[in-house]
Structures are given as structure tokens and as C-alpha cells.
Design a protein that fits this description.
With about 525 residues, the chain is α/β, with parallel strands linked by helices. The chain has 3 domains: about 100 residues, Peptidase S8 propeptide/proteinase inhibitor I9 (Alpha-Beta Plaits); about 260 residues, 3-Layer(aba) Sandwich (Rossmann fold), CATH 3.40.50; about 120 residues, Glucose Oxidase, domain 1, CATH 3.50.30.30. It is about 25% helix and about 25% strand. The strands form 4 sheets. Strands 6-7-5-8-9-10-11 form a 7-stranded parallel β-sheet, sandwiched between helices. A 7-stranded mixed beta barrel has the order 13-14-18-17-16-15-19.
Length: about 525
């Protein structure tokens, strides 16, 4: 037997690299990890003419070369040829060519960090509780709010029931009415968004959801809301009801209603309001309900968060990322050179998967302030302050800007609005630190992305309340025999004290902490 024949037999017996991977989607919908029959071959000392002849003699197609790393890409359709390459003393290594896919929220799930939109899962120590196997299973949470995108991938898997109570007695039909409202979908995603590998996941991602539409585009009456809460508690058996809504008028009827809901075993968690006032909105202000204010990722009280003697607790409510109805959100970023920076799309700004142009310093955004040198289709870099965002972006557009970046004049990120729908260019906001870096990159090519998404960042006590509701679900899931009063006590006693020592009228008992409430380190 010749050496070549022996090698061929050895190849047949030891080959172990699978050859089934295909480009793109597999038949079952799973994404392929590798390009079919395609490999990188690294040659010691670089690819020489003899190496190319050897590849041809093996029937291997060389598709491209990367001389900077001494590698060629080849297509190999027979395992014997592959094994011969692996045994060649000139070859340093052979490896599969991996597939890569776009990494937006529709295809990957964001992991919480202290600086992204899921920081609330860390601040509330929900992730610590998840690590011991508690993610809210066997608890039903009710959301009485606007319409809900019942088909959203982060909602559908945990949704048990949804109904419409706006002007309907009794509540009936679907809670999705396609009326343009996005609020409930964001709220629900924070409480119990499904842990499914896409988008986001919630504080109590194994809890189940019942939803009542009680607010239309013009709000909703107290009667509509009470009817929805009754349906959630009495018909659906919800232990917790989230009310990210409120108003300024006290009602004896409403107060007595929520007292009755407590006697039926339900814990109602409600938002203090976003007016920046020293008075808590109703129904949060009723003593029987849990009133929730908002803090940011640094535990600073949000400027909009209502305070006062009836506040109970606070939770993360600034720059919170969660689900929104399909196509109503945005994912934004700025790329310059090899670096990519997080950004927030300004409300009503134009959408784009990528606008690329020369970065031009436009100062504070006054008319004619962009130092264009006569160029057009540039990316305007503008500092926040003095002028409103709409004026800044309009002035840049009038000078020929194809996109705009507004950087903060104070520490951290921010979000903003252009005021109303219109023919706006893509416009995003970035932090002061990112802005300082970009100022040093003026004159270079920069790309702005503000693409349509089913997730987005919102601010408000409406975003803080679902964090608290989710923590309450984790507490209750640890012992389903507990009462609403017992869960409320643990929720308050487990807070991290902020501000003045002990209870105060800004932070209440403090920022919620699921681990502390459950006695975990």
C-alpha cells in the first residue's frame, strides 16, 4: 500500500469535522454557525506558489486570500481532501468559516449592564434572584394601561388574556386596537418580558400577564380603569396590578374601590406622576396602594418624578429599554472609524439603517454655524443647549446636513424630541463623553443609524412602577401563600435607603431591592 493510499484510508477513518452547515437559515429556522464546505487554511510563513498548486491538485477551490494573516479561504467538498490539508506540514491550522448576523434586538437579547437600558435589572438585584431560580413563576400580574401589542415576541409568550375596557361595560374584545399607543407594551416588557433570546427580558420573566386596555389615545375615565382592574383581579386572579397612570383629583369612590381590591388579595402598584410636583398622583396616593417614584441609573431622583408624603418607594425610571409595538421604536448608534457609540433617536427624527458623511462641527446649532466648507450631505455634530432640538436640526438641515448628532452639555446620556412629526433628517443624541470624542474626529467619515425597531427607551414613573411590580412578583413567587400585606412589607423593608436616613418624602423607603427583600446577600 502506498503512502498516499494509507493517508487516504486514515483520512476516511479519522475525519470528524461535520460538513452539514449551510449558509443562512437551516430548514428548521435555526441559524447556521458556519459557511457550507468553506474553511480558512493558514500556511506557515505565508502562502507560496507550491501551496496553491497543492490546493489545486486536491481539487480544492481557493476563493480568496488574506495575506496579512497568511490565510486562504477554500471550498472543500470531500472529507479526504480536508484531512490531507490538516495533515500537511506546511499548514498551521484549518478552521471553519463562521457565519455572522446583524446584532439588533430582533435577533439577539440584550444582557443587562450598569450603562444600558436594562440597568434596572441590576439595580433592583433581580438578576441576583434569577440566579437562585426565582423568575416569578406561578404569579399572575395585571397591567391596566393602553392597548398592548399582544403579538410582540417579548409579550406573547407570557400573555394569558387581554381585553378592552375603554367605553365598554363589561370589558370585551381584544386589548389591541391599533390606536397608536405604545405605553402598555413597554410597561409589560419591563415587568415580565419573555426570556427568549431576542429583545429584552423582564424583572419577573416567568410570571404570567393579564392585560386590560383602560386608556385610549385621549386617556381613560376612572370608571374604565376600575372596571379593568376588577376584571384583572376578580376574573383573571392577578396577585399584582400595575397602574402606570394617574391624575390629580382624589375620589372617595376610587379609594374605596382599591381598598376592596386589597381585601380580595391584590397588591396595586401605581406611579407617583411625572409633573415634578411635591404631590403624588392618584390612585398612587391612596394609602392602600404602593406609590412608586423614579430614579436614574445613579440612584438620583428623576427631575420629573412627583414626590410627597404619600410616596412609598422608588425604582429605575430613566432611559429604560423595553418592548414597544412592532415598528414603533428605534435603535440608534453612531460609528466613527473602528468605534461604535450608543445613541438615542430623537422623537420624530427620520429613520435610517445608516447615513454616512463627513462629520462637521456645527457648534451650538445656530443658523449657518456648520463649518462645512461648502460641502453637503454631511453629518452635523451639535452641542446641546441654548436652542431647542428642532431648531438645531432644522438649521443643520438647511445647511445641507444629511443627519445630526446632538451631544450632551452635562454628564451622561439624554433623550429628546423634535416636537412633532415632519420631514426630519435622522437625528440622535449622545453623551457628553461621546461628544468630546467626536469633536476630535471632525472631518472624518461618520455613520448615523436610527433604524426602526420593536424596542425603545422611555423615561417616567410609568417605567419605574413596572420594576417595582416585577420585584413584588419575585417576592410573592418565593412563597405563594403570602398575603398582599406581607409582600408589601417585604418590598418596603427590602429597599436600599436613599436620601435622608429612613423614610423620606423624596425616595420613600428607598429603591427596591429584590435580593434584600428575600434575605439574600
Amino acid at each position: 500500500m502506498s503512502k498516499f493510499t494509507r493517508l487516504m484510508c486514515l483520512a476516511i477513518s479519522v475525519i470528524a469535522i461535520p460538513l452539514f452547515a449551510q449558509r443562512g437559515e437551516r430548514p428548521n429556522g435555526e441559524r447556521a454557525e458556519f459557511v457550507q464546505d468553506t474553511y480558512y487554511v493558514a500556511f506557515k510563513g505565508g502562502v507560496e506558489a507550491n501551496d496553491r498548486r497543492q490546493l489545486r491538485s486536491l481539487g480544492v477551490d481557493m476563493t480568496q486570500e488574506f495575506p496579512e494573516v497568511q490565510v486562504v479561504e477554500v471550498e472543500v467538498r470531500h472529507p479526504i481532501a480536508l484531512q490531507m490539508l490538516m495533515n500537511d506540514p506546511r499548514v498551521d491550522y484549518v478552521e471553519r468559516v463562521p457565519m455572522r448576523y446583524k446584532m439588533d434586538l430582533s435577533t439577539s437579547q440584550l444582557a443587562p449592564t450598569s450603562t444600558n437600558g436594562l440597568y434596572g435589572l441590576l439595580k433592583t438585584k433581580a438578576t441576583t434572584v434569577h440566579a437562585i431560580g426565582n423568575s416569578g413563576a406561578n404569579i399572575k400580574v395585571g397591567v391596566a394601561d393602553t392597548q398592548l401589542d399582544i403579538a410582540h415576541p417579548d409579550i406573547a409568550g407570557n400573555l394569558l388574556a387581554s381585553t378592552d375596557c375603554v367605553g365598554k361595560n363589561p370589558c370585551s374584545g381584544s386589548g389591541w386596537q391599533n390606536d397608536g399607543e405604545t405605553h402598555a407594551t413597554h410597561v409589560a416588557g419591563t415587568i415580565l418580558g419573555v426570556n427568549n433570546g431576542v429583545g429584552v427580558y423582564g424583572v419577573a420573566f416567568s410570571a404570567k400577564l393579564a392585560h386590560a386596555r383602560v386608556l385610549g389615545p385621549g386617556g381613560g375615565s376612572t370608571s374604565d380603569i376600575m372596571r379593568g382592574v376588577r376584571w384583572l383581579v376578580e376574573t383573571q386572579g392577578c396577585k399584582i396590578v400595575n397602574l402606570s397612570l394617574g391624575g390629580g383629583i382624589k375620589s372617595r369612590t376610587e379609594e374605596n374601590f382599591y381598598k376592596e381590591m386589597r381585601t380580595k388579595g391584590a397588591l396595586v402598584v401605581a406611579a407617583t406622576g411625572n409633573d415634578g410636583r411635591i404631590s403624588v398622583s392618584y390612585p398612587a396616593a391612596y394609602a392602600v396602594n404602593v406609590a412608586v417614584g423614579a430614579v436614574d441609573m445613579n440612584d438620583a431622583l428623576a427631575s420629573f418624578s412627583n414626590t410627597g408624603k404619600n410616596i412609598d418607594i422608588v425604582a429605575p425610571g430613566v432611559s429604560v429599554l423595553s418592548s414597544v409595538p412592532a415598528g414603533t421604536g428605534h435603535e440608534a448608534e453612531v460609528s466613527n472609524g473602528a468605534s461604535t457609540y450608543g445613541a438615542f433617536g430623537l422623537e420624530f427624527a427620520g429613520s435610517t439603517t445608516g447615513v454616512t458623511g463627513t462629520l462637521v462641527n456645527c457648534g451650538i446649532g445656530n443658523p449657518g454655524e456648520c463649518a462645512t466648507g461648502g460641502a453637503s450631505n454631511f453629518v452635523a455634530l451639535i452641542q446641546r443647549g441654548t436652542l431647542d432640538f428642532a431648531t438645531k436640526v432644522t438649521n443643520a438641515k438647511n445647511q445641507g446636513a444629511a443627519a445630526a448628532i446632538i451631544y450632551n452639555n452635562a454628564a451622561g446620556d439624554f433623550s429628546g424630541t423634535l416636537g412633532a412629526a415632519g420631514s426630519w433628517i435622522p437625528a440622535v443624541s449622545v453623551s457628553d463623553a461621546t461628544g468630546a470624542t467626536l469633536v476630535g474626529a471632525v472631518g472624518t467619515s461618520t455613520t448615523v443609524v436610527n433604524k426602526v425597531s420593536s424596542w425603545d427607551y422611555y423615561d417616567g414613573t410609568s417605567m419605574a412602577t413596572p420594576h417595582a411590580a416585577g420585584v413584588a412578583a419575585l417576592i410573592w413567587a418565593s412563597n405563594t401563600a403570602q398575603t398582599a400585606d406581607q409582600v408589601e412589607t417585604k418590598l418596603k423593608n427590602g429597599c436600599d435607603d436613599l436620601g435622608t436616613a429612613g423614610y423620606d418624602t423624596k425616595f420613600g423607603y428607598g429603591r427596591v431591592n429584590a435580593a434584600k427583600a428575600l434575605g439574600l446577600p
